[in-house]
Write a structure and sequence with these properties.
- The chain is mainly alpha-helical and about 260 residues long.
- The chain has helices spanning about 5-10, 15-25, 30-50, 55-80, 85-95, 95-105, 115-140, 145-155, 160-180, 190-200, 210-225, 230-245, 250-260.
- Helix 3 (about 30-50) runs antiparallel to helix 4 (about 55-80) and helix 4 packs across helix 7 (about 115-140).
- The N and C termini lie far apart (about 70 Å).
Length: about 260
C-alpha cells in the first residue's frame, strides 16, 4: 500500500475516549440534551434522597428548570427559523417539547410535590437511555455491559413508562385544584394546566394521554353500570364522565369527519 493510499484512508481515533470526544463535538446539541436529561434525573434523586444534593427544595425546582432547558433545546431542533406569524405559533403549540416547556413554567411557583415532577423524570429516563446507548457504542460494543442491561430494561418497558407518564399528567389536574384550596398554588394554576392537558390530548406524536383518558372512561363506565353500584354513585360517575367528555377537545379524526359532513 502506498503512502498516498494510507493518507486517503479515514483516520480512526486512537482510543475510545477520543472517539467519544469526537462524537460529542460533532453532536453538541444532542449531547447537551442528554446531559440536561441526566441532570433532571439527578436533581429528582436529590429531591427524594436529600443526602445526594443537600437541599431537596432547591433540587425540586432544578428538576423543572432542567426540563425547561431540555424542552427549549428540543423545540429549537424541531422548529424552522422563527417567523412572526400565526402559522408558526400553531406549529409551535403542536410540538410535545412546547407542552413540557409550559409544564415547567406552570409549576415553578407551586409548592413542591413528587407527583408533579414524576412525568418529567419518566420522559428524562426514557429519552436519556436511548442516547446513552449511542454514547456507549462510541466507546465499544462490549463496554459497560451493566449499563446496557439497564438500558434494555427501560426500552422493554417503554410502553408502560409512557402510559404511567400519561396517567400522571391526568392525575395532576385534580391535585392542582386541591392546591388552590389549600393555598399551595394560585387560582390560575388549574386553568393554565387545563390548557396543557388539552395540548397533550391533541398531541400528534404521543397518543398515550388521549388513550389513557379513553381507558379511564371505560373503567368508570363499567363500574357505574355495575349492578352493585349504588344509584347515587352511578349518577355522580355518569355526570363526571359527561362533564370531562365535554371538556375534551375534538381529535384530528373527529375534525376530518366534521369537514366531510
Amino acid at each position: 500500500m502506498s503512502d498516498q493510499q494510507r493518507d486517503e484512508q479515514p483516520q480512526r481515533p486512537a482510543s475510545a475516549i477520543e472517539a467519544l470526544t469526537a462524537h460529542v463535538k460533532a453532536n453538541k446539541l444532542d449531547t447537551t440534551l442528554w446531559a440536561s436529561r441526566v441532570l433532571t434525573i439527578y436533581f429528582a434523586l436529590g429531591y427524594v434522597l436529600p443526602f445526594l444534593y443537600g437541599n431537596p427544595i432547591n433540587a425540586y425546582y432544578k428538576v423543572l428548570m432542567a426540563n425547561a432547558a431540555t424542552s427549549a433545546i428540543r423545540l429549537h431542533q424541531r422548529l424552522p427559523p422563527f417567523q412572526l406569524s400565526r402559522a408558526y405559533l400553531q406549529q409551535t403549540l403542536l410540538e410535545d417539547s412546547c407542552h413540557y416547556l409550559f409544564f415547567s413554567l406552570i409549576f415553578l411557583y407551586v409548592q413542591p410535590m413528587l407527583l408533579i415532577i414524576f412525568p418529567v423524570v419518566l420522559f428524562a429516563v426514557l429519552h436519556s437511555t436511548s442516547y446513552s446507548l449511542t454514547l456507549l457504542d462510541t466507546l465499544g460494543q462490549n463496554s459497560w455491559w451493566g449499563a446496557r442491561l439497564l438500558i434494555s430494561l427501560v426500552e422493554f418497558q417503554t410502553r408502560n413508562i409512557l402510559r404511567l407518564a400519561a396517567f400522571s399528567e391526568i392525575f395532576i389536574m385534580p391535585i392542582t385544584v386541591l392546591f388552590v384550596f389549600s393555598g399551595k398554588a394560585g387560582l390560575m394554576t388549574p386553568l393554565v394546566y387545563y390548557q396543557f392537558l388539552v395540548l397533550r390530548y391533541s398531541s400528534r406524536r404521543n397518543p398515550y394521554t388521549r388513550n389513557m383518558f379513553y381507558e379511564m372512561r371505560l373503567v368508570a363506565e363499567n363500574f357505574a353500570n355495575g349492578t352493585s353500584t349504588p344509584p347515587f354513585l352511578r349518577k355522580a360517575l355518569q355526570g363526571g364522565i359527561g362533564f370531562i367528555s365535554r371538556l375534551a377537545p375534538p381529535t384530528q379524526v373527529q375534525q376530518q369527519q366534521q369537514q366531510q359532513q
